[in-house]
Design a protein that fits this description.
By secondary structure, the protein is of the alpha/beta class. The protein has two domains: 252 residues, 3-Layer(aba) Sandwich (Rossmann fold), CATH 3.40.50; 243 residues, 3-Layer(aba) Sandwich (Rossmann fold). The protein has a six-stranded mixed β-sheet, sandwiched between helices. A six-stranded mixed β-sheet has the order 18-21-22-15-23-24, with helices on both faces. α6 packs across α7 and α13 crosses α14. The longest helix is centred in the C-terminal third of the chain and has 18 residues. The structure holds adenosine-5'-triphosphate. It comes from Tissierella pigra. Keywords: ATP-binding, Nucleotide-binding. This is Sugar ABC transporter ATP-binding protein.
Length: 527
């Protein structure tokens, strides 16, 4: 019997129908994959299932749900949690100033009796901190996560936050169904592999998992069955063993997707470097850089890879001056000021951050303004002079935004749609469009395809290659997906323990990359 039945679910946001009579069934303890392009309606369906306020404040939904044999109509996430449904959202819902333990135990704090509580009641019970810490540690241990549970969440790398959110869910005792909205998007390949093992264990314990991911290999590897959505409609529900990855991609996108292999070109390392990092130190929590020396040539695509927490993410954040940085950064031989993001932008260095929520979008502004505003600010782009007056050229902004919407396949109702109402993947594409609009000489991109569907991923990578080829833009791409780095980079620097461990060609063997990431000598496996 199904644990969850969602029948004929439809949802409209201000006249825009985003779910059209969708049906979804999940059995107890099974791992069920939910697939679909950016904007297909996956998060909306999950928000309905989890009773998220956004659903009810926008007119509710149509259709019926049954959970654990009973009619189910959650009005709030509390209703869902009471039934034994947990959800880890695409965007983190942690409280930055609280410690890891406080976040895991939020609203479910362990308490113990005090003298007064015995008389007056449970309100005067006191927090049982040792027990809270012990149970938090236990949940973190189940995820093989070794982090001090008393650390504050603020400033931790995004990969850690994901594990903490999951730890919070598995710490709940009545959990029957766990919804995971792109849980592995922020994890490195090895962390993701470890995470998939955890999911399998949870399923063995009888907890059903609803798993949203754009990584189809993961879907193939761990799910028992899948449901595919396209443009808000159900395409197919099928047992995973009866479908391969190519077919899954075709069901999602409705056409064949081809992937090119390496794009590598020869880089002349004898030329003067275009960007040089000398003894760079960056104090980014969880991603410390400890003396990086790197020379990047004009027109190169340099990949930065390595395991989470080893410092690869810190490098671009440091160059851009977002965390305290020491050392020397030379652009075309000229020393750049440190710790000054504005000056870096003025020097034609732009950054697409891995943290799209923290430094991301103006959610209550339309797509076109989001794409244009940094360029207006920094470069006075899209400004026209009328006599002594400078005014923003709305027409030019719109036509540029429309081109970006087309190039990056941003799924929206038009360039005037507020970015708050875009799906996560489409918000990410707007961030990419904004960085590209600056048309920088050096573009730093961090996890550019995180949370982006398989078809759009190709578009984003192709766009980077096109900018590199046509404008000779120098690109430094940081990614936890080695396959993606290999696809577009000319060279790949592997960062371990805050330093450059090795620089490898993209066609080096898996073994060489594996050894470098583990901080080992690669001379025996590389010529
Ligand atoms: N609060 C909202 N108001 C208006 N429209 C919305 C709102 N939330 C989502 N939408 C629209 O609903 C559609 C489905 O979005 P949803 O977030 O469910 O997609 P998704 O499949 O989860 O995509 P992704 O993989 O990018 O996360 C999109 O067209 C989106 O713009």
């Amino acid at each position: 019997m199904s644990l969850l039945q969602m029948e004929n679910i439809s949802k409209t946001y201000s006249g825009n129908q985003v779910l059209k009579s969708v049906t979804l069934n999940i059995k107890a303890g099974e791992i069920h994959g939910l697939l679909g392009e950016n904007g297909a309606g996956k998060s909306t369906l999950m928000n309905i299932l989890f009773g998220m306020p956004v659903i009810h404040s926008t007119g509710g939904f149509e259709g019926n749900m049954t959970f654990d044999g009973k009619p189910y109509l959650p009005k709030t996430p509390m209703d869902a949690m009471k039934m034994g449904i947990g959800m880890v959202h695409q965007e983190f819902m942690l409280i930055p100033g609280f410690t890891i333990t406080e976040n895991i135990k939020l609203n479910r704090e362990n308490t113990k009796d005090t003298f007064l509580s015995k008389i007056i009641g449970p309100k005067l019970e006191k927090l049982d901190l040792p027990k809270m810490k012990e149970e938090s540690k236990e949940a973190l241990n189940k995820l093989n996560m070794t982090v001090d549970e008393y650390l504050p969440v603020a400033g931790l790398p995004v990969g850690y936050m994901q594990f903490i959110e999951i730890a919070r869910e598995i710490d709940k005792t009545n959990l029957k169904l766990l919804i995971l909205d792109e849980p592995t998007a922020v994890l490195t390949e090895s962390e993701a592999a470890q995470f998939l093992e955890v999911i399998k264990n949870l399923s063995n314990m009888g907890i059903a998992i609803l798993f949203i991911t754009h990584r189809l290999d993961e879907i193939k590897q761990v799910t028992d069955s899948i449901t595919v959505l396209r443009d808000g409609s159900l395409v197919k529900s099928i047992e995973t063993k009866n479908v391969d990855i190519v077919e899954m991609a075709r069901l999602m996108v409705g056409r064949e997707i081809s992937f090119e292999t390496s794009n590598k070109k020869e880089i002349d390392l004898d030329e003067k470097p275009f960007l040089e990092l000398k003894d760079l130190y960056v104090n980014m929590p969880g991603e410390k850089v400890k003396g990086v020396n790197l020379k990047i040539q004009k027109g190169e695509i340099l990949g930065l890879g390595g395991l989470a927490g080893q410092g690869k993410i810190g490098i671009s954040n440091g160059i851009m001056g977002l965390y305290p940085t020491q050392g020397t950064i030379l652009k075309d031989g000229k020393e750049m000021p440190l710790n000054n993001p504005r000056e870096m932008l003025n020097n034609s260095i732009a950054f697409l951050s891995e943290d799209r929520k923290g430094v991301g979008l103006l959610l209550d502004e339309p797509i076109d303004f989001n794409i244009a505003y940094t360029s207006i600010e920094i470069q006075e782009k899209f400004i026209k002079n009328i006599g002594p007056l400078k005014i923003v050229n709305g027409k030019e902004i719109k036509s540029h935004a429309n081109k970006m919407i087309e190039d990056l396949d941003i799924r929206c109702t038009g360039s005037n749609q507020y970015t708050r109402f875009l799906s996560g993947g489409n918000q990410q594409k707007v961030c990419i469009a904004r960085a590209l609009t600056l048309n920088p000489e050096i573009l730093l991109v961090s996890e550019p395809t995180r949370g982006i569907d398989i078809g759009a991923k190709k578009l984003v990578l192709d766009t980077l290659v096109k900018l590199n080829k046509e404008l000779n833009m120098t690109i430094i791409i940081t990614s936890s997906e080695l396959a993606e780095l290999r696809q577009i980079s000319d060279r790949i620097a592997i960062i371990t323990e805050g330093k450059v461990q090795s620089i490898l060609p993209p066609d080096a063997s898996d073994e060489a990359f594996g050894l470098a990431m583990a901080g080992k000598d690669i001379s025996e496996v590389v010529d």
